[in-house]
Amino acid sequence: MRAAIRDTEIYFDIDGPGLVPDGLVMRERPVAFAIHGGPGGDHSGFKPGYAALTTAMQVVYFDHRGQGRSARGNPGRWTLDENVEDMEGLRRHLGCGPIVSIGTSYGGMVAMAHAARYPDSVSHLVLVVTASHGGFIPRAQQILAERGTAEQQALCAKVWSGGFESEAELKQYYRVMGPLYAARHDPARAEDGLARAIHSPEALNRAFRPDGFLRRFDLRPELSRITAPTLILAGRKDWICPPEFSAEIHALIPGSHLMVVEESSHSIRVDAPDRLFGAILDFVAG
Fold first, then answer.
1. CA gap 230, 115 in Å, rounded
2. pLDDT of residue 193
3. What whole-number distance in Å separates Cα of residue 259 and Cα of residue 235?
4. Do residues 10 and 90 lie in contact, with contact meaning Cβ atoms separated by under 8 Å?
5. Which of 38, 74, 161, 182 could be joined to 267 by an S-S link, Cβ 3.0–4.6 Å?
6. Mean pLDDT for each 10-residue chunk of the chain (286 residues)?
7. pTM check: above 0.70
8. In this structure, are strands 25-28 and 31-35 parallel, antiparallel, or unpaired?
């Protein structure tokens, strides 16, 4: 499905019922937005895993502008600030009240900024393996120098320079980097996910290159404005958004809860799906 929002068209999909029978009445379930990472990815990596959440909520997936199945439009507007406004525009377009906002990696950055700027639009905030400022990039470079193979370091040089020239090249990056992203990396399973996904190298290039917006963004001054109950999940072995950044977010969001998954790297949904979805369901249930 597609929604004409602001100056673009956002692709979205919905999983799970919004109303369920409960005795003699129909009970409304919470609506959750699943916010994908990247930039340069799409929502497909959440499927089918996030279906586990539909036992208690309706899940809305969407692709950021310039990525996945959403319209491309002006590349100059493929930014975090625009993604925040698109997300709020989609919430209003769908007629949702306050949502459960679940942001992973770059999606967590979008979710944080949205919850800070539109606090009345969020009932619960879930931040998964993310960071609140551009300092995660030099830290990831340091960790990669310690842990990465020569091939991994060479491919990551294209991330830091914004040098990917094709979707095939970006998919190869994820193949080679798979063992760093997931402690339980399964090449065959990962290949299936790569085949299904739409990767947009120019969106990633514009975010990470030396003048990219992820180099200079800083949400730390805004985090005290978040009023929604907040759950923060980190992977102890995460190389690109290491747990120190989750701890920093935890210190800056009043009343937030931090869970570090010891056996996981950046992809908790691969390394510890039961921990991830169980924690989210328990958190939203209160």
1. 10
2. 95
3. 9
4. yes
5. 182
6. 97 97 96 97 96 98 98 96 98 98 98 98 98 98 97 96 97 96 95 96 97 97 98 98 98 98 97 98 96
7. yes
8. unpaired
Handedness of CA 130, 134, 138, 144 (dihedral sign): positive
Asked whether 125 and 115 are in contact (CB, 8 A), the reply is yes
Peptide bond into 221 cis (omega under 30): no
Report how far apart, in Å, the C-alpha atoms of 32 and of each of 54, 121, 225, 248, 281 are.
Answer: 9, 12, 21, 25, 11
pLDDT score at 130: 98
Residues 6 or more apart in contact with residue 76 via CB below 8 angstroms? none
134 sits in the region (left: phi over 0; alpha: psi -120 to 50; else beta) called alpha
Which pLDDT score, from 0 to 100, does residue 149 have?
97
Domain segments of the chain: what residues?
Answer: 2-136+214-285
Distance CA 53, CA 32 (A): 9
Residue type, 88: E
DSSP letter assigned to residue 29: P
pLDDT at 191: 96
Question: In sequence order, what E strands does the chain have?
Answer: 2-5, 8-15, 19-22, 25-28, 31-35, 58-62, 99-104, 122-128, 230-235, 257-261
Q: What are phi and psi of 51, to 5 degrees?
A: -60, -20
Structure confidence at residue 172 (pLDDT)? 96
Q: Is 27 helix (H, G, I), strand (E, B) or coil?
A: strand
Q: Give me the CATH topology for the region 2-136+214-285.
A: Rossmann fold (3.40.50)
Pairing of the two strands 58-62 and 31-35: parallel
Q: Residue 228: which of 268, 277, 283 has the closest Cα?
A: 283
